[in-house]
Specification:
It is built from three helices and two strands. The protein has 83 residues and is α+β, with helices and mostly antiparallel strands. A two-stranded antiparallel sheet has the order 1-2.
Length: 83
Amino acid sequence: VMSITDAACRRLMGMEVASEFYGAPQRYILGASESAFQDAAGTTKSAWETYIGRVLALERDEDGQVPTVGQFTAHDPQTYTKI
């Protein structure tokens, strides 16, 4: 009985860790200027502010190129729940 309980606890702990790290899709921005990550005073925003505040608008660079924005798919929790 203890080995079954231990295995179930390991599986639940794995699900919890996976949901925290991989549950939300990762996003990326390529070619954005530094000003997209600075506040009005020119101070660099923290990673938390940038991620939670979301970058809603990006300007073209000095060559007129628009930054590339995308995201990677989130982790599929089915690997833990499917038997």
